[in-house]
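Hello again, I could really use a second opinion on something today. I've dropped the whole record in just underneath, so have a look.
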Amino acid sequence: MSKTYYLKTRDVYYTTQKSFKNRLQKIRDEHKTERYISNPDYIADLQDFLEDYHPSKEFFINNYDIRNCHFFVSKSPDYQRNYSLYIQDDEKQNSFSVEKFSATSTLANFSQACSFILQNKKLEKKLQLMTENNLSGNPSDYQLIHVSPKFNEIINQFIQKYNLREILSDVVSENGLGNNAPFFNEKYQYLKDEFLEFYDSLDLEYELQG
C-alpha cells in the first residue's frame, strides 16, 4: 500500500510522494523572480512540510516560529545554478530541500485521524455547497477547504481543550502499520465522539476548490 501525504492546514492529501514533491517543486519554480511567497495555500503547504515531513523538522520547529515566518526562493549557496526555498524570520534564514522526506510527525497523524472521522460530514457539506453553487460533476472533483478557522487551528484548539499535547503519541497510532489512515488507539477511542461534538460546536466557514 502506497503512503499518502496528508497536509493538516488545508486538510488535503497527496496520494504519492512524487505528487507531493511535484507540488513543492512547483512552488519553488514559480517564485524564482519574487522576493517572498505570498500565496496562502503555498505557504500552508511549506509550513506543513517543514513541521511534518522534512528530515530536519525538529531543527526547524525548535529554531523557527514556522507559522509566523516568511518563505522565499533564491540561488542555492552550494549550487549556484540551482534555486532553493528559504525560511526567514527577523534574525536568521535557512535554505531547505524538498527532495527528501522523513516519517510523518505525530501531529500530522493525529490531524489525519481527526479528518478521517469527519469524512461523512465533509461529504455532506461538499454536496450541499455543490448544490448551492450549481456545480456539476463528482464530489471527488472538489476539495472542501476550511477557510475559518483553518483545519490545523481546529485541531490545535481541540488538543488544547483536552490537554493532549504531551500524550499525542499515546493517543494516535504509530507510523508503519499499513492502515488507510492513522486511528485513535483503544484507550482513546472515546475522543472520536468528543471531537465530533467539538467540531459541531464551531462556527465554520468553508470553500470548495476544484
Q: What stands out?
A: Residues 119-132 form the longest helix (14 residues). The first strand starts at residue 5 and ends at 7. The mean pLDDT is 92. The chain has two domains: 5-96, 106-209.
